[in-house]
Design goal:
The chain has 321 residues and is an alpha/beta fold. It has two domains: 209 residues, Rossmann fold; 90 residues, Rossmann fold (3-Layer(aba) Sandwich), CATH 3.40.50. The chain has 13 helices and ten strands. A hairpin with an 8-residue loop joins strand 1 and strand 2. The mean pLDDT is 95.
Amino acid sequence: MPNLPPIRPVTLAEIEAARERIRGTVLRTPLVKLDLGKDGPDIRLKLENLQPTNAYKIRGGVNAVAMLSDEAKQRGVWTISAGNAGQAVAYAARAAGVPCKIVVIETAPQTKIDRMQALGAQLVLTPFDVCWRALETHEFPGMDGTLVHPFDDHNFIAGHGSMALEILEDCPDVKTVIAAIGGGGLVAGVGAALKAKAPHVKLLGAEPETAAPLSVSLAADAPQEFHAWEYSFVDGAGGRSVIQRMWERMKPLVDGDIVVTLEETRKAMRLMAEKARVIAEGAGALPLAAALSGKAGDGPIVCVVSGGNIDLAKFSELIAI
């Protein structure tokens, strides 16, 4: 295992600098109120599915690649992904003229595989278990160049924090922000900005019932593996475990976690399509499903719609009555 830098908090200054650095590439996404009727909860959708790669990961990818040295750029970059981080790093690498390789989880949707290839990345399809070990060890045979880790990367996380600055500007009275948990990079970035600028705002994770390692980790007050892990259409979230380094990042920032069923997630996807004409992938719908559970308290609640990279035939099948 390579000698990794020690974990340290992401500062507000680093997040603000990242925001400026990525401004020309990354969209300032809208915050849209979901109309649930006069008696419904006040829920706002942060539409990261509208990014150029249809997912929030582009914020971290562009920041991380921009901060590489000239020598590192020449050697190229690589990452490990089920699709969204891969697209983000490939997009940033192509813009910077940097070679890019991606270790891709072999169950990744074909639509995500096609997009990564279209961005010029070289793909290595790999079983989930092998990918997860590589995420833990930061190593994979035959990969040279610089690893832009899809969540355990300080500069990647700082880029994600830019999203929270936009949320606070567009909804200053926000009470709770909910974000999906995969590896933990999203909540680490959003949480760092929220704790620095608005520490009264609650930050909650959302996980599917089939892959909820943060929930069991919070209960045990230590990073845990989720032994009942199952693959589902929520491929952009839900890891097998909380990695120790990410536990150190998340624990001071996250105020809780809500586990939702696959059926609740599917209904949230349908509701967004019906009410707001939003196409969200499974991971992007988790926060709305969590907010609708009633466990997130009063609004305004901001739900991060983290991505919309889903095959349209699969999306149609999932939202059908």
